[in-house]
Amino acid sequence: MKSNKRGKDFCIFALPGMFCFFAVVIVPFIYGVYLTLTDWNGVAKVKNFIGLKNFGGVMKDTQFWTSLLLTFKYVIAVVILVNLIAFIIAYLLTRGIKGQNFFRAGFFTPNLIGGIVLGYIWQFVFSRVFVSVGESTGWNLFGVSWLSDPTKAFIALVAVSVWQLSGYMILIYVAGFMGLSEDVMEAASIDGATGWRKMKSIVMPLMMSSVTICLFLTLSRAFMVYDVNLSLTAGAPYGTTEMAAMHVYEKAFTSRQFGLGQAEALLLFIIVACISGIQVYLTKRKEVEA
Amino acid sequence: MNKTTIGGTKRKAANLLAMAGLVIVFAAYMFPFLMVVINALKQKRDIIKSPFSWLFTIKGLSFDNFVKAFTQMDFLNAFKNSLIVTVSATLLVTLLAAMLAYYIVRHNNGISKITFSLMVASMIIPFQAIMIPLVSIYGGTLNILNHRATLIFMHVGFSMTMSVFMFHGFIKGSVPVALEEAAYIDGCSRTQTFFKIVFPILKPIISTMVILNSLAFWNDFLLPSLVLTDKKLLTLPLSTYSFYGTYSADYGTIMAGLLLCVIPILILYIVLQKQIISGVVAGAVK
Question: Which of A172, A244, B107, B129 could form a disulfide with A71 if both were Cys (CB 3.0 to 4.6 A apart)?
């Protein structure tokens, strides 16, 4: 009788949620590992088992490595800039100035809007507004659209991502600064710590838990950038701004090499997991209690 | 206590400087939105000539852009699709995740432990690592792509991990077992106890999860783009994408279309600003 009731509880409470989770995350993940061992093109009825050949294919896919290298550059630039800018803005916002909430809410706005729409808005800004500035001032920097030059298009992509992500990190850093204990700050001031010294020895160590979260979030988001990449540059000019996530998509759904694409996706996942793991381990060690 | 006594003027000057810096950065952040707003009513030749000019200096302003964008994007239909998907997926995941988390917290058995650790571990799997097999399974073998219900189901599945994790922490910390035991003694069944006693206590975490999940569902592009191809079913980000592909040179119409996408979210944001911000902070910090 009792075990019967337990079974009923399980079916009502746990089963529906577990079913969704297993059907959408776990089963495809395992099936994905199997796919990397086949030569499936997404349509054919037969999947030939080809062992680890796809991983050899990944090694030979120079475009993948180019896009991965570009993604690394992008991630480094975005992670540093987002956190630096967000940290400074959050610091300025929590000095007790007027309109703090208004600013904070305003900076967060881009996060409410999908990456596709944001990318298109910026595409207009880069290809029309800035060009028009260039035309009327004779400023060479804006003479031609940034999006038509590989280096400048890359910078544009970084700039838009920094603009998009920093509002989110500002929220977290502001929460961190507000959580700093008044007593500790006052004690530091009484002990004669001011300016940079106070920032380095008192504020920074206490802010490390916010730093851990923000670094983790920016790292994982930047590595997987897709929406903004697609709508701002779509890889143009000539695929020079194609990030890893976009390359994986193209491999699978445009070139119809599902096995190879999935092998690259898995590799990307392992890289991201390792880097985020190391980051969390390193920054967590630096966290202190007030 | 009085901060203005020592170095008061210095602090004031520093604050003024901080304010000035913030205003400049803020203006730069808002600049792209301003560009969309002031160009949405202009005609193409005026936009090319002077994207900066304010509305009142230009003749020939009209709402034609909006009318065109509205009909070409099939805005109402896409809006409706987005709304159906977002609302149903949010309601479903909130309910199912709360129940699953409750089960896991109150039944410390093998299934609970395995499920929970699998969920925590799978939180680091990015969507891109699953999308290819996902399309293979649901598009190939099962052949159920191109249905709203499929998209809703997948949204629920992907957001389950994070939601269960959040509910788990909350139930463990703030739902007293004694309360439930009292309910049992009074003759409530498990299900009754959950819905009448536990669910109401979960209100704060529910509002956080509703905000986080519905924002993510509303704005998601990659998953819906893989699931839905039928024009009638497209959500707002998808129809923006296909609309842009057709009209990319027609700047005025594009700006009007983008503005149409942004306005509903902005209105919601103005109304629910406080809840949204505290929800996002709570979701990130945990």
Answer: A244
